[in-house]
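Why do we care about 3D structure at all? Because function follows from shape, and shape follows, mostly, from sequence. That is the central idea of this module. The next example makes it concrete: a single protein chain, its amino acid sequence, and then its structure expressed as tokens.
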Amino acid sequence: MDVHGRIREVLAETIREELAPEHQQLSTEDLIRALRQRGIIDDVMKELKFVTDMNEMGRTSAPKPSTHFVDREPPVLKKTNIDPTRRYLYLQVLGGKAFLEHLQEPEPLPGQICSTFTLCLHFRNQRFRSKPVPCACEPDFQDGFLLEIHKDSLGDGSKMVDATTMLSICDPVHMVLIKTDTFGETTLVASYFLEWRSVLAAENGITNVAVELLGVGTESKVSVGVLNIRLEMYPPLNKTLSSEITSTQFTLERQKTAEKERLFLVYAKQWWREYLQIRPTHNTRLVKIFAQDENGVNRPVCSYVRPLRAGRLLDTPRQAARFLSVLGHERAPVIGGGGGKQEQWCTLLAFLCRNKGDCEDHANLLCSLLLGFGLEAFVCVGTKAKGVPHTWVMTCGSDGTITFWESLTGHRYIHRPINPDDPPLAEQPKPLYPYRTIGCIFNHEKFFGNCQPSDAVEVCVFDLHDESKWKPMSREAIKSVCAPGATSSVPPFPPLCASTVDAAVTSNEMEVQLRILVSEHRKDLGLSTVWDDQLSYLLSQALAAYELERTTGVSAGNEEFQDAVRRAVPDGHTFKGFPIHFVHRNARRVFATCLRSPFCEEIICCRGDQVRLAVRVRVFAYPESACAVWIMFACKYRSVL
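And the structure:
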């Protein structure tokens, strides 16, 4: 544990012994030799293990349910042994300063809940999260992250990478700073791409950088604060590069990227001119070629989508759609009125870390997951009712079936076009989807502008090979700027993370809190509360069936539930039940929402003879700690007429 203390003792001793009256200079070698003689260096090398906290979200101790045991012990820090044959980058965050928005914040009292900052990192398919620290002008980040340079590439993973090879790895370390307020609401504070390769030219392989974080969206030119970061290569490099070499490499990469982007811009302008010449009315269609990310950088829309495999976290495309529908929906914040929608398409890491985003973020991720599942998927840009701009996802079946996927709700709609040339009495399909117009569709390698006479979705024909209906962009042009690694301005996609929420524990905690809230509310009305545990348990069947139906579109198991309720409610008694669905885990907010529904309020405030109340909570955990929370309130009482 106390390596630093022991090293200090030995050094003090060595200096006393070695420094004779003539004050000779001690070199680093002398000090290292002294440590080696006393066996401390060997001890340190043996003990050198980097700690990665497996349970970042500390669990609160929970009432133990009978079927599911929770360790009350604090989470064990899992030790990662360093493999001395691999190359690592050790990134330490040593505090922040000048977070001026929090200049006036008082020191939090012990035990008081306060707003916190969390730093999320992504580097070459590895994701990390710092411990939350209280928001302050100088937040006390003290975290170390061990990043493997070659994580998944098998061929290179086995050999030790030298400095020259690492110089060609242009993946940045993407850092996202999230603020969580006292109610658990998250906001995106900053998103930064750290160029780590400066460490390759640093003396002794260690470099300290002060990173100035800029705000997001409308504040992308405003400084948020400064993080002190220390980078270190492990094992140390035998030969460091000269700073000229690294700066030349960076300049070359920038020039190459700028040239590719310039050529694409020239091509896009030419494409747009041609598109407008087809019909002058095309300039009102929602054809989006570029979109701004959270840092205010304009990027081609195709770079926001990429085939993404969810590993073992999601099994089916419909499950992916369900996962997207339980991630929160939030418009990009705008300061001041004016009703204008602030446009901000987030990078995937920023969207996942915040656990919520706008419809574009949802559609981009759903399209990426569906492409990963091997479907031909596109993001559609168009409008909903009243001309509100919207994005959704479309898949083209091999038999020509067109399916729309609404990423905010998980609903799927089959598209059957109306033929405007049909005789007036012919039966026309009535569209069930909420979409009105469609301007363009795109995925990671294709982009089509809608050039049919009308851009109304209901008459739209999705024959993408017919250039008189859909004007395509050159696949080569898209590939030049949107393919992974094509330009340094397109960030790599992070992998999805498994949920850290324990569904059974969270369900129990919420249920206990809701019981207390109901009992207190009834007490205020002068009513006593008797809970029926058996009835509460029966409600689980219904909640599981609701979630299954949301995921698969198939309802099952309803007959058994109805039969169980009939048997549990004696003759002459009335049963009332009210199911409701949430995507957050705040029991007070749930209760307040339920009381606003007259049906639910009737159950919670039920008066009568032999009133028995029941409540059941069922939390379904999805990747990225997203949750679908189903709650059912019920009561049974003797009907007295």
